[in-house]
Structure formats: structure tokens, C-alpha cells
Amino acid sequence: MKEKREGGIEAPTRHAIEWQSPDFYDREKLEAEIERVFDVCHGCRRCVSLCDSFPTLFDLIDESETFEVDGVDKKDYQKVADQCYLCDMCYMTKCPYVPPHEWEIDFPHLMLRAKAVKFHEEGASLRDKLLSSTDFVGGVATIPIVDVTVNTMNKNSTFRGILEKAGVHRGAIVPKYDSKTMRKRVAPMARTISAEPAGETTGKVAMFTTCYGNYNSPELGEDFYKVFQKNNIHIEVVGKERCCGMPKMELGDLESVQRAKEENIPQLLAMLEKGFDLIAPVPSCVLMFKQELPLLFPDDPDVAKVRDAFYDPFEYLMLRHKAGKLNIEFDTPLGDISYHVACHLRVQNIGLKTAELLRLVPDTQVAPEQRCSGHDGTYAVKVETHDKAVKIGRPVAKKVKQANADYFASDCPMAGAHIAKLAEVDKPIHPMTLLRKAYGL
């Protein structure tokens, strides 16, 4: 076999996650693989500036009796895995030993395996189960009157103190809930537009609203409808859905991911059969269907079909622009935009399509900030990791504050809110909202 050397020019290869194999949950085999990978990381240390997994690992090694991985108690391996929130940045931007290198290092998916083994052996706390049950919590919290009560309580210092004892940090931003969900808001906006294919796009999109979009940022649905309809793209929401499964995957609960897949894929497939392309307003959900589910279920042809039809919304619009089908008659300049590029958008390897599109607006400058916010949905919320999320997010927050731009935008509402609080700037605005503003809609 030809040796794969560091610094090669071949594209990284992602291997399927063999989570349904008995060996996947064999702790001795897991620990042997972790020791092998940690030893490589110890000799490299290129990822030390990313998440807290790497400082945690290197501290364990440097404080051990041997100053090597063999001096670290195997029970402490989990401390490293607990700091990994599967942003994929080490794999995509730092590690020189990813496949096809002969060492085949896939740090995020090894940490996923460690999380899955822990969940398989111990389960999860009630807090973690609730935080990762976004569709259940959102469904309850958006009941009329209940939503008002929940939002009021989340602003109450006494209640937040009680919530902190349950493991939710009092300083963490928690999302608002709205009984007028995205589905309810866009229903009156539906209109039929004759689809006009362009390039690889059909001109018809079905939007997977996502838990966060439907329950916490429902106004985004109106922005999406306005912008896509302005561009003569027929848009509908997927008939029925549940959480994409990303929160459960980050918990290591892969059986719940499978159950979510079994509910979502048929719904999405039904839209494909009607000639729709697929989009979602949150990068993590797009990534779940584009990358993670295909790696978890590599032999499922329906998952592959959905993968091939899923697009980031700005990726989709720029494909239309490439084919000469994007409306570039903008009414309102946007000025200076400080734009945070979410990690789960970066790892899709599509380039900075959001920034490219916004730059088409006259008298508009976009400054992308390509550094992790540290939020990760639940990492910044938990008592034990909130302060670390703040530390990770401070560098990008500093850049945003220094920019003093007209707008601060992020494709990820949660990451944006976390950064905006640290930067002490106005709440973030979604790029699709900015695009709607540019069109004067």
C-alpha cells in the first residue's frame, strides 16, 4: 500500500461510522484507539487553539508521571470527549493526519464513539435528556400562554437560580418560545410559483423548518418565503418533521438519532418525489442531512437521496445566480456587516456563499469572522461548560466589537446570540433577514 504522507494534496476522506457493530461499544477497543489517536495528537498539538478538548488532553499528559499518553488514567479519557461538541473544525482545518493519511485520524468521530459508549453504559441525566429533546420541549413551550409563562420565567433571576441548580447556567442565553410558530406564520404566505429549473436546481424548495426555526425563530420563515418568492422560487415547508437528531448525536444517543431519521427521511423523500430541492435555516440541521446521517447510515439509499438534494439556503441562491436566475435588483444598501461563519456551515465545504451573496448588494461590505463561537446549542448552556464556551467565544466577540459594523449577522441564531452578548452589541440578525431588507420587502 502506498504510504500517505503528511502534507498531501488529496481531499480528506470521511469513513462511515460503524455504530451498529458490537465492536463499536467495546470499551477496551475504544480505549486502545483513543490511546493511539491521543499519542498522535500529543506529538502534534496543532489543534490546541480550538475547543477545550485539546487543552484538557495536553494538561492530562503534561501532569502525568510519564509526560506521555501512557501516564494518563484511561478513566480520564472521557474528560476529553466531554469537551468535544463535534464542530469538526479539527478534522476540516487543522489535522494533517485525516484519511487518506495512513494514520486515519478522525478525532470528532472518535469522540462521538466515546460519547456513545458512555451513553450506552450510563445513559444521560434528566437535564441532558431535556436539553437534547428540542422538538418535545419546543412543542410544549409553544402552547399559547405557556410560551408567555416560559419566556417570563427565563428572565426571572430567582427562577434562573433554581434552573442553575438543575444544571443550566444562570448567565447562559436561553431561547424564547413563540406560540405563533414558523409553520403558522408561513401558511398564509403560500402561493404557487411555476418552477423554472436552473443548473442543478429545480426552482422548487421544501424547507425543513428545524426545531429552532419553528419554535424559537419563527419570523425567519417569513424572511425565507419573501426572499425565495422574490426570486421566483416556489417554497413550501416539509409536511411533517421532528428534530434532525444533531442534539441527540452530540449526547451519544445514536438510537434516538435513528428514530428521528426514520421519521424525517420519508417526509423529505416525499418532497423529493414531487420535484423539490431541500433547504433548512440552521446550518447544523443542513449538515446533519448532508454529512452525519449518510455516515451513520451509509447503506440507506433514501438517506443518500436526501443528502444529494439538500442545500444551504445561500448555496442554493448562489447556484441560481450562477445560472443567471437571481434577482440582483436591490433597493437598500446594507453598509458594513460583521458576519460570523458558523462552524457547521464551514465544514460543508461550499465556500462563503452567504458573504458572496450579500456583497452583491450595492454599498455593502461583509467582514467574515471564521472562528468558533463555542456555543454548540447546549455546551454554552450547561453549568460545567458555560465558562469555557465564553472563553472560546471571546476572540470572535472581540473582533465583532472592534468592527463596530452596521449589522452583526450569523447563519446560526444561537451562536450569533452568544457572540452578541459577549461583544455587547445589538442582537444578531440573520443574513436572510438582511437580504429581505436589501430587497425592500
Strand order of the largest sheet: 2-1-3-4
Rg calculated over all Cα atoms: 22 Å
At CATH level 2, the architecture of the largest domain is 3-Layer(aba) Sandwich
Helix content: 40-55%
- CATH fold category name of the largest domain: Rossmann fold
CATH uppermost class of the largest domain: Alpha Beta
Number of helices: 22
Structural class: alpha/beta
Which blocks of ≥5 consecutive residues have pLDDT under 50? Answer: none
Number of DSSP-assigned strands? 7
> How far do the termini sit from each other?
59 Å
Question: What is the general shape?
Answer: globular
Mean pLDDT: 91
Count of folded domains: 4
The amount of beta strand, in percent, is 5-15%
SSE series: HHHHHHHHHHEHHEHHEHHEHEHHEHEHH
Compile the SSE list and pairings.
Blueprint: H1 27-44, H2 53-62, H3 77-81, H4 89-94, H5 107-122, H6 126-131, H7 134-141, H8 146-154, H9 157-165, H10 182-186, E1 204-207, H11 211-216, H12 219-230, E2 234-237, H13 246-251, H14 254-273, E3 277-279, H15 283-296, H16 301-309, E4 310-311, H17 313-322, E5 335-340, H18 343-346, H19 353-358, E6 364-369, H20 386-403, E7 407-410, H21 413-423, H22 431-439
Parallel strand pairs: 1-2, 1-3, 3-4, 5-6, 5-7
Helix pairs in contact: 1-5, 12-22, 14-16, 15-16, 20-21
Protein name: Anaerobic glycerol-3-phosphate dehydrogenase subunit C
Keywords: 4Fe-4S, Iron, Iron-sulfur, Metal-binding, Repeat
InterPro entries: Cys_rich_dom
